[in-house]
Amino acid sequence: MKVCLHGNRLVSLRSNNLNPMSGRRIKIAFMDAAREFVSSLPEKAQKKMTYNLLKVEGGEIDKEIFKKLENSEIWEFRTLFSGICYRLFAFWDTEIEALVVATHGIKKKTQKTPKREIEKAEKLRKEYFNDKNK
């Protein structure tokens, strides 16, 4: 499992962003599936998603763009563009710094977030921490 922290990224991370709630830096990293999902979107949808991701990096935790899912450790980045709901699933790794790891994404077609997508993100989160603790 690869997490992209440096090199060829979709979002240029700003190094001095602090979360005003905790005083800690927020960084966003992409697993391969998340990076591939964003790359597959139309260019204007990518730009809107990037805009929203940069807002979160800047410490803005707005439920309209970054929300914790109920009964889970999974969060979702929410982007609405041209009537289409795009979602990137993610989780926090705060052991060293405030890091949000995006696992994968979907075009949301129903009101409720598909349970299998949440389960997939939870599985990837578990694998991430198991690999990290080896």
In short:
With 134 residues, this protein is α+β, with helices and mostly antiparallel strands.
Mind explaining what this structure looks like?
This protein has 134 residues and is of the alpha+beta class. The protein is built from 3 helices and 6 strands. It has a 6-stranded mixed beta sheet. The model is unreliable at 1-21 (pLDDT under 50).
- Please mark out the parts with pLDDT under 50 across 5 or more consecutive residues, or reply none: 1-21
What topology, given as strand order, has the largest sheet? 1-2-6-5-4-3
The gyration radius over C-alpha positions equals 14 Å
The amount of helix comes to: 25-40%
Tally of contiguous helical segments: 3
C-alpha geometry: globular
- Strand content is 25-35%
Coarse structural class = alpha+beta
Main sheet: strands, sense, barrel: 6 strands, mixed
Count the beta strands: 6
Distance between the termini: 13 Å
Query: What is the string of helix and strand elements?
Result: EEHHEEEEH
Oligomerization status of the protein chains: single chain
What is the typical, i.e. mean, pLDDT? 82
